[in-house]
Amino acid sequence: MNNPPSMDWARRLILHPNQLDEVELSRALEQLAAGADFADMFFESTKSREWRLDNGKVSAGRFSIGQGLGSRAVRGDQVSFAHTGDFRPEAIRSAHRTVQALTRLGGGVAAAPSVSLVPQLTDHGLYPRKDPLASADLLPWVQLLEKVDMLARAAHPGVRQVNASLSSSHRVVLIANTDGQLVADVRPVTRLFIHIVLERAGTRAQGSAGVGGRYGLEGLEDEAVASTISQAVRVATVNLDARPAPGGVMPVVLGPGYAGVLFHEAVGHGLEGDHHRKGLSAFAGRMGERIAPETVTVLDDGSLPGRLGSLGVDDEGTPGQRNALIENGVLTGLMQDRLNARLMNMRPTGNARRQSYAHLPMPRMTNTFLLAGQEDPNDIVASVARGIYAPRMGGGQVDITSGRFNFTAVEAYLIEDGKITAPVNGVTLVGVGHEALRHIRAVGHDWALDEGIATCGKAGQTVSVSVGQPTLRIDEMVVSGSV
Amino acid sequence: MLSAYISDSEADLRAASQQAVELALRAGAKDASASAFSGGGLQIGLRDGRLETAMRSGHRSLNLTVFQEGRVGAASTTTLDPEAIQRLVQEAVSIMRWAQPDADNGLADAMDLAHDVPHPPQYEPVSDDAAAMAEEAQNMQRALHAVEKPAGTELRTSEVGLSCSETLSVMLTSSGFCRASLGSSQARWCSVTAMRDGAMARDYAQSMARRRSDLRGTDWLVDRAVQGAAGQLGARTVPSVTGLVLFSPRTAQALIEDVVGALMGAAQYRRASFLAGALGDLVAADHIDLIEDPFEPWGLASGAYDGEGVAGSRRPILDAGVVKGYFLNSLNARRLGMRTTGNASGPYNLTLSSRRPGGDGLAMRRHLGTGLLVTAITGGRTDPATGHWSRAVEGYWIEDGVQQFPVAGITLSGDMRTMLREIIHVGDDVERFGAFRTGSVLVDAMHIGGRA
């Protein structure tokens, strides 16, 4: 197969309309790489559509076209970069002259690399190579949101507001580099977010939930939509009844799925190659050390079918793959992009990601999770005399230098004498990565990934990820509260 | 060409906007508005004295909104070629046709359009090229190496960065509004990792402004980042306690952000706000003022008009603790039976102040007496409907007004409605962060979650 389907998309949307081909791109790379030891071009053509349900009406929609080229030259650990929204050859030459000048600023002297691009086949099968926006029929979008409105209002008599957004995007990327690699990927995304406002006796509370994946509208199954609505309604109900949480150090049981953001924050960010190369991570120099109980294995896996963090190839053309970060409690792996891998004499791991053509790639997580253990989740809750059960999270942060992380529950309950009792106000949980790992007491068998709503921010760039875990007990965490 | 960083002329942007509006009207829209942007800039980053990144950015975009009897559709593109503009119009009109009507949708009312409200000054041409910026970065780096470090502390890595950019924007409506505006921005930042006895801590300082002369000096940036990072070394937790907490000016911004969120039109309309329907109510301590000013010269959030062509006004948002206004666009104003406040693009410059002066930073610590000074909010959230406030924080423990030791790994929680009423003082140690200006803020009835 000389023309793999992803490459067909790239030719049709990016190369052909601008009279670009392998020869033209090879010449452009040679110009870009002058004075550098590596250079790449990242073309992107993204179209997206979003519909909003507001006040019982599907009354707002937006369509967006985002296209551009980011061109990068790397010399040692120095990067020069320019981007343009214009794919015409003269615009590309002009952007590359700019990069050349910036490379000279860092001391690079012109050498003339020779580049010969060979199109590469990417038959990854992780997600469909289709355009979720191909149909001009917008009725299914409107109907799905109408159904959300109806089902949500029927779910609870106190529902006063239902807001929802339904979005799909079709992203075609084309990567060409001075190693001669020319590779394309077609990445669909569809997401549904639901936000509910509930009222009882004059008091209002809100709840939200979402679902998403690398598929088109048809990938949102009725069951997933119904379960998203009931989650949003449940969170709102819990917040109506919530009382102040106890504050201080106590055992915490985290539910399956999105609570795995714990490992994204407490482990993942600290194992990104760039932080290690710069000596900034609290985990730097600790490879091979036992840092958690044997029941703890944490993976980053960009090769799961249909997940938002999955990548046929990453944003530098390396295939998405499964990397062990912690294996049976031992720190084993880093996540790398080309630049950091090369400088650390390691191999790229398929973790190079960028928000868009206008941003530089960095080592980023894909789908990051703790593997299942043996224990019954009910027994895990029953093992706690007094603590917090937190099944749903709102997001988290970490300071990789100190290892201190925090995350916030949007649904939380007291555990008293081994039983889940009263709902409490959303709590913020604080810990230090290596300490929290040591305090993992029990790992459940009910493994799950989040529903497809997680995003990750790093250095001002946002990308979609997945997080996951089974039910988990941590013996000591600091909990925000007032009692 | 206007400048090296803006690749389109005002006439180009006007023509693209005009074309989108005309095509939309021809395709069946009754009204339309379009805005176009073109801009670019440079960013230079140095790590440990070596050039690490040099980036040239260039952006353009065209946004179109179309209306027809309460139906609305919108589209945007980052490429302005004729096929893209065609597709933009076609998609926006198609969405408009499928959308369910809401009578409150539509262009801003003609009487509200700011045809001749003068522009506050916002544009100073960026004069530096990459070489000049790299030279300035080296100077920052030298200042960083020369700064006096606390005894026994070393700087593990340090990063300095500079960026500058310019943007030209044009806005045009089928109701006859057509204006252009120019803006520039400058930023400098510095981030430091300090190390002592195997412990590491990191902090940063940054300064953003529309023109160079409003930037903080290098010495301030460097000193703040180094003291911040070194100061946090050896941080520990404190016992759980309820009482007074002093928010530094940087962290006090979080309080302004929550008030803004609660007073936004959409939150008010949905009544999903801890200040729902609070117009005219006393919601904060009766010495607290929050003033909005769209016209502050060189303000980071200044502007002659918003994304609908409507001007804002210099006005109190909180006046002696009483809510005097919401942040409204045309749609939410109509829904609430009010008039737009010109905030379709968000709030303008905001200043929090007190009629009960708290004095400088030292005086504020004396007011605190013994308790927590919060210098960083590292995570957490506010429930916008209930006002439940919960954060992970870092800072310093203060006793009798004197700093004792750094604190980290603790949580702080409260309730926004209570917190606003329990503001004891706002300090004179005023700093500007983005669009917000405030001194440090002393608040009672906060719950610290720490050691049992």
From TrEMBL, chain A:
Any one GO BP annotation for this protein: proteolysis
One GO term describing the cellular component: cytosol
Name of this chain's protein: Metalloprotease TldD
A Gene Ontology molecular function term of the record: metallopeptidase activity
Keywords from the UniProt entry: Hydrolase, Metalloprotease, Protease
Domain Metalloprotease TldD/E C-terminal as annotated: residue spans: 248-481
Occurrences of domain Metalloprotease TldD/E central (ranges): 132-240
InterPro entries in UniProt: Metalloprtase-TldD/E_C, Metalloprtase-TldD/E_cen_dom, Metalloprtase-TldD/E_N, Peptidase_U62_metallo, TldD, TldD/PmbA_N, TldD/PmbA_sf
Family: Belongs to the peptidase U62 family.
Domain spans labelled Metalloprotease TldD/E N-terminal: 39-95
UniProt organism field: Nitrospirillum viridazoti CBAmc
UniProtKB/TrEMBL annotation, chain B:
Source organism: Nitrospirillum viridazoti CBAmc
All copies of domain Metalloprotease TldD/E C-terminal, residue ranges: 245-450
Name of the protein this chain belongs to: Modulator protein
Coiled-coil portions: none
Molecular functions (GO terms): metallopeptidase activity
Database matches in Pfam families: PmbA_TldD_1st (PF01523), PmbA_TldD_3rd (PF19289)
BP terms from Gene Ontology: proteolysis
Domain Metalloprotease TldD/E N-terminal span(s) in chain numbering: 42-95
A GO CC term assigned to this protein in UniProt: cytosol
PANTHER family, A to Z: METALLOPROTEASE PMBA
Family stated for the protein in its record: Belongs to the peptidase U62 family.
UniProt-listed InterPro entries: Metalloprtase-TldD/E_C, Metalloprtase-TldD/E_N, PmbA, TldD/PmbA_N, TldD/PmbA_sf
